[in-house]
Design brief:
Elements lengths: L17 E12 L2 E13 L4 E5 L6 H9 L6 E6 L2 E2 L7 E4 L11 H5 L1 H5 L3 H4 L1 H9 L15 H13 L5 E5 L7 H18 L2 E5 L3 H7 L2 E5 L6 E6 L11 H13 L7
Parallel strand pairs: 3-8, 3-9, 6-7, 7-8
Antiparallel strand pairs: 1-2, 1-4, 4-5, 9-10
Helix pairs in contact: 5-6, 8-9
Length: 264
Amino acid sequence: MVALENTGSADAAVGMTIDVQAVSHSFELHGAPLPVLDAVDLHVEPGELVALLGPSGCGKSTLLRLIAGLEPPSLGRILADDRPITGPDPSRVVVFQDPTLYPWRTVRDNVALGLEARGLLRSQGHRVEEALALVGLTGFEKAYPHQLSGGMAQRAALARALVNDPRLLVLDEPLGKLDSLTRLAMQSELVELWRRKGFTGLLVTHDIEEALFMATRVIVFSGRPARVKADLLIDRPYPRHRGDPVLTELRHRILELLGLAETW
């Protein structure tokens, strides 16, 4: 593995601050508003890896979309480094549950998309190989998506994000469709990438153990419309051990917050 060269400003690889201030959001359903977020406040320090947990459909992924700038909130505001987020930006990159690779493009060409769109491929094309090495895909540059396993395809999607040297990596259940063994391996790989690169990370997951294994903080949401029920600091060193009794206690606490303690 190699470190990506920093070709931007002096702090390009340093994580950004995110402030979510009294954000509420609704969608229109059958002509009536459907509230999905209710007065959410959240502060994320540079370099944190924060996991968002809550019932399915409560609004976690919607919050990530708002932070990524893919749409504006109905109420409230979201700031990145004290500046309002008004749209997408290469410094804030999303990795979705599905790799969303273009099937007619090779792995290298998929990873190069961001640089290509910004007119930087000619001058910074070497970053593509560096990103592929960072996620362990050296040697697969000429492969097509259908020739990759699920884990390899998600690594390619990560490389496509990392080639932009993001200051915020938004992870929307990126491991949700992987088999259990691949998922465990990639949890460790993602933590290592985050620790090496120093970006801020926001992770939506339904897996409590995944959140506790990876994150510095876990935000627990209520059912829709989502409200913050708890903000838990995971003050454990890396690399973490899944049998850590402190993590086991935190797991039980989260299950209680989600109303599931009696079933475990």
